[in-house]
Amino acid sequence: MTQETARRALEQLLEGNRRFAAGRPEHPRRDAARRTAVAGGQHPFAVVISCSDSRVPPEIVFDQGIGDLFVVRAAGNLVDELGLASVEYAAEHLRVPLIVVLGHARCGAVQASVAGGAAQGHLDRLVSALRPAVERARASSGEIVEAAIRENIRAVVGALRSAEPILKPLVESGIVAVVGAYYALESAAIELVD
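^ that's the sequence the OP posted. Answer follows.
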């Protein structure tokens, strides 16, 4: 696998999103034949780390089928130790060449972190984990929630690219690429985040 493989995987995702955003999804590889074909093993072409938000299901917004994506979802598209283990498994054992961190407009987890205050139960851990992105967003211009969403995407991308001992060497050798993406709820369009 090479950077070219990751580039082709990213283009396949973006083409699927263009179909979905245009209202012309193909709903590929979602039939009984595909279920049978992947029953014996999986060969996804991309990992998508996405928010748990019900409005952003990766297989649908990228117009992909069964077995195409290895999806890790958590509020705020954050990656904890278990999520990281899942991503490492996909990259190392399934040889997935592309990891996409997918944030989205009006993320409730980011909104809660921007609002501040104490959160109840385990929600405080979520809000706290997003706080560094919120603080970086406060230092920039623009609408703070949207800026914090993008800062969080960048932070997760950076953390994955530098995660040792598995991901960092794969990224540095060009075997795996990690990119950030932002989903606009109204238009359904996905744009890459630097």
